[in-house]
Amino acid sequence: MNNKKKGITLVLIATLFWGMMGVTSRTLGNAGIDSMSISFFRCLIAAIGFGIFLFIFNKKAFMVDFKGIIISGIYGIVTFGLSFTTFNIAVERVPIAVATVLMFTNPIWVTIFNAIFFKEKITSKKATVIALAIIGCLLISNIFGVGFENLDIVGLLVGLSTGVLFALQLVIPRFFDGKYSKDSMLIYGFIFSTIALAFFTNFTGVNTAITTNSSPIFVILNILSIGILSTFIANISYVKATDYIETGVASVLVALEPVLGSLFAYIVYGETLTGLQLLGGLLIVIAAIWLARTSD
């Protein structure tokens, strides 16, 4: 298999597992596991998996000074702990497809943050794309279909914040280029977010949700799925894919994520979107791809 095929395969693996995430999160929520607890298991499993991965392939990633560990810890709590939790909450309150597409606004936020913090110019083309994404967000919120007073404003804002926090995963490491490696920030970020979320995790509730469920193995498999597949393997696959293909190509393939998320939501929960919502989702996907390709 040549490098391009390797890269495309890795991105498709990441996209497939990210697309499953909304349904898995909803399933765990329906089983009685709260958002914080779901996020805890995502971080814990990712920390264990990524720790083993680095121990085998990059032991130097663990060699960080105390300041770097603290910075990485804060980075992880903010971008992993919070973003995982906001996504879970969004999935509880709005359709899975809407939550997934709102998370996909992250390239727009990356562009805005880069302009604010790193003085990168927002060209007229980028401004047009951002405006397109805003229109897409308004359409997918279904404000024109149900009226402003009937919208789940909290669900939509929390879903949108997932995109912002996801963007910070890429933006924050830029402040420390040359000081701390991305691998170091990731592993200590996962470790500290796991520790922080442990204080808010309802372990008794998780145990009850598993033991009283008619199919406890099914609940456990969903926990392992969202931790191993949708967090550890998906993130590693995407990062490794950019070693073989351009980020622009990767972004085009990742655009399948909202499509897959919507498809899984329809198959499992029978969720559907209106025509205007589908148009809004399409506009956001187009905007994200256009921005990524423009930035390459």
Automatic annotation (TrEMBL):
Taxonomy, superkingdom: Bacteria
Signal peptide (from-to): none
UniProt key word Membrane: yes
SUPFAM superfamilies xrefs: Multidrug resistance efflux transporter EmrE (SSF103481)
Annotated TM spans: 39-57, 69-90, 96-117, 129-147, 153-173, 185-205, 217-236, 248-269, 275-292
Keywords on record: Membrane, Transmembrane, Transmembrane helix
Entries under InterPro entries matching the protein: EamA_dom (IPR000620), EmrE-like (IPR037185)
Protein name: DMT family transporter
Organism for this UniProt entry: Clostridium sardiniense (Clostridium absonum)
